[in-house]
Amino acid sequence: MNEISRQGIDKFIDNAKNIIDTFTGSFLRSGKPTSDRSRAAVMFNNFFLHVQGVKTHMNTLRPSYTLGMGLAAFFLFVIACVSGVLLMIYYNPSIENAYNTVKDLTYVVFAGKLARNIHKWAGEAMIIFVFLHMARVFYTGSYKSGREFNWVIGIVLLAVTFVVNLSGYILPWDQLSYWALVITSNIMQSPKELTDSLGITQYFDIGGFQKELFLGGLTPGKESLTRVYLFHIMLLPLVLLIFIAVHFWRIRKDGGLTKPEAFQPQESDAQLFSTPDKKGGIFTTNKTYGLMELAGGRTPAVDKDVENTVLSWPNLLLAEAAVLFVCLAAVVVYSFFIDAPLKELANPLIPENPAKAPWYFLGLQELLSYSAFMGGVGLPTLALLGLALIPYLDREQDNVGIWFSSKMGKSVALQSFFTGIVVLIGLLAAAIRFGWLRNWLPNIPQLIITIVNPGSIWVAFVIGWSLFVIKKTGSTRMGAIALFTMFLMSYIVLTYVGTELRGPNWGFYWSRSQWPSH
Amino acid sequence: MRNRFYLMTLFISGVILCAFTLFTAYREMQPEWKDYQNDYKELLIKDTRDEAAKKKARALEVAIQQVYLSKLKRIDRCTSCHIGVENPLAANAKEPFRQHSGEYLKNHELNKFGCTVCHYGQGRAMNKKEAHGIGHDTHWDYPIIPMKYIQSTCAQCHNLEMLKLKGVDRVVKGEKLFGENGCRGCHKLQGIGGDLGKALDIVGSQPIAYFPMGNVIGERTVYSWFKQHFDDPRALVPESEMKVHVTEAEADLLTTYILSLRSEEMPREYRRFKDTAGTERTMEDGEALYKKYCIACHAKGKDSLYDELFNRTVPAIMNPAFLKVADDGYLKKVVGEGRDGTQMTAWKAAAAGLSEQEINKIVEYLTSERPKVRVEPFAMASAKGDLKNGEGLYRVRCALCHGETGKGALGLNLRNPVVQGADANFLAITVRDGREGTPMPPFGKKGVGLKDQEIVDVVSYVKTLSKKK
User: Which residue of A107, B207, B273, B433 has the lowest C-beta tally within 10 Å?
Assistant: First the structure.
């Protein structure tokens, strides 16, 4: 073997030895992350990671601040997407085959039942975590200081999360699906109550139009299933994805998550992340963005609190991976033990009694039982609109990043919670025990019931109470806390009443065991 | 350690995730049916003597077995556990491997018929509970049918003549009982029958949700419901007015028959009929018709009886005293038109669906024991009634039982169309001679002593009752 060929072989062996390092390096584009410089490069050189900053504020990494809930909602979405693709391999969206393919998935496809359970529970958990995330953002005042519109995008995401879940509920084409479809189409039709009582239905039947658009006909059938399938696997996930991307991008533009003005590192922080190396390193104590520095303004956050930031690689990525794995583990364990329901094949001749929507809509269904228009359209629209407008009606900019803003905020939240729960339960109990206007005045015009019913009275009370709090405390933030607390509480209470206390013909029962067995 | 919290979280959740992924894989690789197939394989290897068969048994592949039945719109995977159904060697093996009993599979090849078309149950399911579909939590409308009712499923493809010929007689016996116990008096079948009860055309295939299962004892299936409903209707449906008096064995036969009344039609190539003489409805004799349509309420018809369920007296329509008064025309009219306000059904073709000949036959049967001595006629038509006198007499003589306004109390409601439309002679004779077997006494010479003219007056007044308020 001559000199040249030996050199060649040596080079080849060297390359083979270093293959892992060189591959990682090329994958990360800037070599192995061994120094601060290369660690930073990992972040800004990566297509997926560069939406996050090179450095992350310590406050963001404290689990007591974010509780990882927004991220959990996002990861649940990813889990649902992946498991959903697996289900699509077998699922067939026709009324002849839908039910049978779901049955085959559960019985003969390897781990098909698990995939379906994961899909179902990840989707429903998304609702819970979107709510929890919203509560965290709200109570830490994170909808302020430039993040107002991102809060609005969050509300859109909440609404789409609801709808995407509902559309999935309809796909198995069992009794639950069919009657949820019927209820949903009735909700779509509910503006008819208003147009009927105004006598304009024949000119302007928006309810009927919505229903027909949704069902692809006058009654639920094969067109409805095709349509709902399209919504579920394409349109709505696409919308979610786009809005999530904007949601994340704006966080980055707003200088990361909110943090308290007076941030103090604590000793316990050392367990969470690698505290910044004060000596040396490539970073000055100034955070610079070149030209953007001159632009001034709030975004991006330049030169603020730089000493309290740590490198995102590995600190932030580790925290995110932890949240991902907790989500994965929790969903898999839950799905291992609890199966997604699948009832009898859809049968238009056998109404489920009570025909209930999926649990996350039962609060609305409870309101719906008082007035179709208010419960189906009026109040939900009002609630979403009210939530979306919170950042514009409360423009106080102090105490951002602090849970409940202040001691007073905490007590306002508690007071609102307890006052609200007493008033709401009292209202519901009175309506259940004594009936409503129709029971006393059988000939009352429907328009009056549409306007005056337990649902609208409750919303009026919430608005009145919030104004009262604003007046008493002189702070719009306190009013917002009162409003939001009551909104969350009423969602939970109404959902509970609709789920557990309502039986056949939407009658009141203390428990399921008291339902008549016919 | 730096980052300890997140590293620990990552580690613990990672371990849990891996563990449960493995658990799932393990669970998926150990399904119920695999155990059965392995046992079956062992059994075959042990039982066979000759080497070739042993070799064949060893080569048996453990895999999901399924029969795809495109015409019948189903997939049956039952043989994944019931793997020996076609194997004569498994004739004496224990369930679920045992060979199918009888010769049935010879004419009903497994790969053409599958299993669930005869046995019901959920063919797609891969575990015992859900495959058999028993229990509310399986959410399956057609659970596996108990063997004592299995013959009901034969009737999906075979007519009763053929079943009779083959000795599969439980549906036939059930139908006979159905005909003889007057079930059609209240239940319509193919458009013929009363309408006090539900029409039964597709009742055997109706999902469980149609049946109030609350009071069913034991397995809550439609099969148990029918059986227990035949035993005691009011135990299951307290407000039921159904009359049924059958023995335990008869209830099973009736259940088998009822379950054979199904909605879906089998594909033509699956059906095998034995030709009958004619497809027309053959005319039954009066007695058979009486049993089919009348006996449930009127029983033997000799004595009137107070019916606690209906809360009224059911007249004795074959009582000679009644027949002496009621002529054929009157009887035909009542049978044809029914009696408004009572449970008596209108049997004419447009209502309960009996033809005129059939009604005639029934009336012929009813009157077969009519006494030769006809009642002394009453010349009502030639007489003229005095309404004022009639009203006075009515208040004194009739109002106590029939009510001041004739709406009835202890006695009959005189305002009902049957009385109002009845022949005046008939009413007059009834007033004069009374009605044996009921509290109605004779008001003529033999009894209270009213004169014929007075009876004319009363009847004339009664005839005007319907116009009064």
Answer: B273
